[in-house]
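User: Design a sequence. Structure:
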């Protein structure tokens, strides 16, 4: 029996980067825990030898120094290989085009013992076994779906199309329902026009999130963004915790632990919370489940060169749902995509849920209240300490000697777009062509977002 209506007053979402379901959770499958994970025999053909079988030996960092492909064309090859059926057999062949060696690394998955935080939370609460990214493509269109339930027909990473969206934050604001995006070093959501003009209302730092938890002033809907760039500072290193390849997965474990600890420190606050961890897309890493091809097209727009109609979802991603009202070990078989976030916020916090959808996709999306099955709240789960450097957990590439990833370059482009909103005297004078390393990107984003915060 579910809790009474109105029990959940805070929906908190952490969206991390570019990991597939099987990569993080696949080897959780045991005879006593029937998650839709791996048997250990799944494989992909190799262009240069025998098939590559999945293995539980993924490293925190170092396996994926060449970023696996995740453009629309890459994902098509990963899903379909060289045939017409969605056999999920093209991951190795696709990665072989990105790296001179190590194509088999996209089949490496994590042993549960290396991810004590994610593993403990998954087993202790609920796992959405059929949560797919909204688009078989890269980060920006998928994050656009998370915020606005559409990418306006786009599959690319260009910054300018993020301007003209109606988002869940605007919809909630029009109904006097509070929401906020908490970020570490950057957020592409600031390029949404409505949000950019109301920065003080809609944006806060991660420290603001921790403070809001401590003082019981969380908004109804919170969306948390991780640190996307590492940098070396005079005060010491700031390490990326987004888990984007080849960033250290252990740092993301630490972030998850900090958020869970902040939410559960006050039992009264935690009883009113639903906390979701999800990943924007699979990042080119193997998963064995075929994405559905019967999704609702959000708005009928097809403005991409590939003529993709948005009826097929992207590759499956990890999704963990936590609340004192979620049973231990719950395995949810409902199909979700990122528009389920907006749909859940609408269902939980708006009286006109049935008529206020952003698009046809979130109108049809399943909502996460289906995981709230208990009639009395559970005790808080004790988390283990994140693993330390003894297992290589703290190693990170040196950002001063590391080229930007495609995602970091896109963040720089978004920041450059935002910098044009600043008075000329507050601009850096830099162009994206001048920014090459991860350290350069981190410093540029710090400067631009620092100037924007001064105007909040």
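Assistant: Done.
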């Amino acid at each position: 029996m579910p809790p009474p209506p109105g029990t959940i007053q805070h929906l908190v979402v952490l969206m991390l980067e570019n990991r597939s379901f099987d990569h993080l959770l696949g080897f959780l499958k045991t005879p006593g825990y029937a998650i839709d994970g791996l048997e250990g025999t799944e494989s992909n053909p190799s262009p240069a030898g025998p098939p590559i079988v999945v293995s539980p030996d993924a490293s925190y960092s170092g396996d994926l120094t060449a970023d696996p492909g995740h453009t629309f064309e890459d994902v098509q090859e990963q899903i379909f290989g060289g045939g017409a059926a969605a056999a999920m057999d093209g991951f190795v062949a696709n990665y072989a085009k990105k790296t001179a060696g190590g194509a088999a690394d996209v089949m490496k998955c994590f042993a549960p013992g290396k991810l004590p935080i994610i593993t403990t939370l998954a087993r202790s609460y609920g796992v959405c076994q059929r949560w797919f990214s909204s688009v078989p493509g890269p980060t920006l269109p998928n994050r656009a779906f998370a915020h606005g339930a559409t990418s306006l027909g786009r599959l690319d990473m260009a910054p300018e199309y993020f301007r003209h969206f109606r988002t869940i934050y605007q919809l909630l604001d029009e109904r006097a329902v509070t929401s906020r995006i908490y970020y570490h070093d950057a957020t592409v959501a600031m390029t949404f026009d409505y949000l950019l003009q109301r920065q003080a209302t809609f944006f806060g730092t991660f420290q603001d999130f921790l403070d809001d938890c401590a003082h019981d002033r969380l908004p109804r809907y919170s969306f948390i963004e991780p640190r996307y760039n590492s940098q070396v500072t005079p005060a010491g290193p700031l390490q990326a915790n987004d888990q984007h390849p080849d960033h250290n997965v252990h740092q993301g474990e630490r972030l998850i632990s900090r958020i869970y600890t902040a939410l559960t420190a006050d039992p009264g606050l935690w009883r009113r919370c639903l906390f979701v961890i999800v990943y924007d897309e699979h990042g080119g890493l193997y998963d064995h489940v075929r994405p559905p091809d019967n999704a609702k097209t959000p708005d009928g727009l097809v403005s991409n060169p590939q003529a993709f109609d948005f009826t097929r979802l992207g590759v499956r991603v990890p999704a963990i749902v936590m609340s004192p009202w979620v049973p231990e070990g719950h395995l949810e078989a409902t199909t979700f995509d990122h528009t389920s976030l907006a749909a859940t916020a609408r269902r939980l916090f708006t009286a006109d849920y049935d008529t206020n959808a952003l698009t046809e996709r979130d109108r049809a999306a399943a909502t996460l209240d289906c995981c709230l099955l208990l009639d009395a709240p559970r005790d808080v789960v004790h988390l283990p300490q994140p693993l330390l450097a003894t297992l290589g957990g703290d190693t990170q590439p040196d950002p001063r000697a590391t080229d930007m990833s495609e995602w970091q370059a896109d963040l720089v482009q978004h920041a450059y777009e935002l910098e044009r909103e600043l008075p000329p005297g507050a601009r850096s004078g830099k162009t994206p062509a001048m920014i090459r390393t991860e350290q350069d990107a981190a410093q540029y984003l710090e400067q631009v977002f620092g100037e924007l915060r001064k105007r909040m």
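The longest strand covers residues 10-16. The two ends are 44 Å apart (CA to CA).
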